[in-house]
Design goal:
- The structure is a single chain.
- The chain has 112 residues and is mainly alpha-helical.
- The protein has a domain of 61 residues: Flavocytochrome C3, Chain A, domain 2.
- It has 6 helices and no strands.
- The structure holds heme C (4 copies).
- The site of one heme C has 9 residues, from loops.
- One heme C binds next to α3.
Length: 112
């Protein structure tokens, strides 16, 4: 009996912990402003895994479209040495974004 209750408590505590972990995960910028839901990208209301980049492209179009968005910038941050750099190398969804180009260059673009 007692171990049964103990196991139940452990399970509840575990459930609360994992709930809290997700509760601290937030979005920023426009995705936050539009109240985007977790499952929109993760396909799951209790996300655990990094979503496939295809979810970004479903809304933002092809890589070619993304490149055009910033074509006025020289150099274009969407046109580096590789045509397939993952979006979330730079655009972090749950932490401040970074500009990986600046590991070697100093372009200084602010990454949303
Ligand atoms: C459900 C559609 C949708 C999905 C999925 C989505 N976005 Fe967006 N995103 C938008 C819209 C709409 C905007 C606001 C208009 C714009 O800037 O294009 C936006 C804005 C952005 C911005 C500009 C942010 C800002 O605050 O100025 C970036 C960068 C971005 N998205 C990257 C991504 C990446 C990377 C992914 C995949 C992890 C992604 N988006 C997934 C719809 C989406
Ligand atoms: C715009 C798409 C998008 C939305 C909406 C989104 N996420 Fe994410 N999430 C990502 C991406 C991309 C990553 C990979 C890390 C990064 O780029 O920030 C990630 C990583 C995570 C991870 C870590 C997975 C791992 O193994 O590292 C968790 C947990 C998570 N998200 C939870 C959430 C929760 C909770 C919400 C709702 C509040 C949410 N996400 C909404 C795109 C999204
Ligand atoms: C090397 C870093 C880097 C990578 C990788 C990257 N971006 Fe960006 N992105 C930027 C920077 C920097 C800006 C802001 C440029 C500026 O100053 O306007 C930006 C801006 C954007 C914007 C907003 C454009 C606008 O309308 O102002 C969107 C949307 C976006 N990126 C989507 C994506 C998507 C989708 C991918 C993956 C296919 C991606 N980005 C990959 C650095 C990156
Ligand atoms: C690991 C270091 C490194 C990173 C990260 C890096 N670069 Fe470079 N880049 C270099 C070096 C070294 C050169 C000069 C040698 C050459 O021309 O290939 C260069 C040259 C360039 C040039 C001028 C020469 C050319 O290829 O036309 C551009 C434009 C450029 N980088 C853009 C970018 C952009 C945009 C990013 C981010 C998406 C980026 N780089 C990320 C190391 C890097």
């Amino acid at each position: 009996m007692k171990t049964g209750i103990f196991h139940a408590l452990v399970l509840i505590a575990f459930a609360l912990c994992s709930f809290n972990v997700n509760a601290e995960i937030k979005l920023h910028g426009k995705h936050a402003q539009m109240h985007m839901q977790c499952d929109t990208c993760h396909g799951d209301t209790r996300p655990r895994e990094v979503p496939d980049e295809q979810v970004c492209l479903n809304c933002h179009g092809s890589r070619e479209d993304v490149k055009k968005l910033t074509s006025k910038l020289n150099p274009n941050p969407h046109y580096g040495h590789s045509d397939s750099q993952p979006c979330n190398d730079c655009h972090k969804q749950h932490e401040p974004s970074v500009l990986t180009c600046d590991q070697c260059h100093k372009f200084g673009y602010k990454t949303p």
